[in-house]
Structures are given as C-alpha cells and as structure tokens.
C-alpha cells in the first residue's frame, strides 16, 4: 500500500484518494497530486475566480466592474485582457488594457477565456 501525503493545509494524516484528487476529512481541503508537482517546479501558482490555473500569456475576461484608482475610468465587465503575466503580491496579474494602459489586477476578478 502506497503512502498518502499529509494535507498541505492542516497537515492532517488521514487523507484519502478519490480518483486523481486527494481529500482531507479533517478540514475538507481537496488537491490533486499534479498541482503539487507543478507548484514545486514553478513556484508561483495563480487561479482565476473559477479555480482554473492561469499561466503567463493567457487571455482572461474581467467578471466585475473595476474602478481604476486615481482615475475616473472603469474597467467594464466582459473586458478581454490578453497576454497576462503572473507576479507576486496581492495584485498578482500584470497586464495592459486597451484604452487604460498598464495595470495590475487581482486574479479573483477575472476568469480564463
């Protein structure tokens, strides 16, 4: 019998496997073994509002009107943002939006296109 990994969130030892996902019954956290290996290789893993993993060069769509700080302009719902770059920090997407310019976005306000 193979040794199952401990939960990355609560370090619980009673994890179990359901198909390709690992589940912790103590805290309810679910993760895949593939995501762990990708995170170890890349170091930076960013997910959109739906939980899809984002990568450099992806195209995303804004899911909420976003006010631009220091300006009266607004990034409208449905705006497509092409060629994003992942970065560290609270605003973890670096991009250029047509008509507004270069700015940083939070990944929780976008979905993968």
TrEMBL record:
Signal peptide: none
Protein YjdM C-terminal domain boundaries: 46-113
InterPro entries noted in UniProt: YjdM (IPR004624), YjdM_C (IPR013988), YjdM_N (IPR013987)
UniProt xrefs under Pfam families: YjdM, Zn_Ribbon_YjdM
Ranges for domain Protein YjdM N-terminal: 3-32
Membership in a protein family: Belongs to the YjdM family.
PANTHER family reported in the protein's UniProt record: PROTEIN YJDM, PROTEIN YJDM-RELATED
Name of this chain's protein: Alkylphosphonate utilization protein
Species this protein is from: Parahaliea mediterranea
């Amino acid at each position: 019998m193979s040794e199952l990994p401990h939960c990355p969130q609560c370090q619980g030892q009673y994890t179990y496997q359901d198909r390709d996902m690992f589940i912790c019954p103590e805290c309810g956290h679910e993760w895949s073994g593939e995501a762990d290996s990708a995170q170890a290789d890349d170091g930076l893993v960013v997910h959109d509002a739906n939980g899809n993993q984002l990568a450099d060069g992806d195209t995303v769509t804004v899911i909420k009107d976003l006010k631009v700080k220091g300006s009266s302009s607004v990034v409208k719902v449905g705006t497509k943002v092409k060629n994003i770059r992942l970065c560290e920090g609270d605003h973890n997407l670096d991009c250029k939006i047509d008509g507004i310019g270069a700015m940083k976005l939070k990944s929780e306000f976008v979905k993968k296109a």
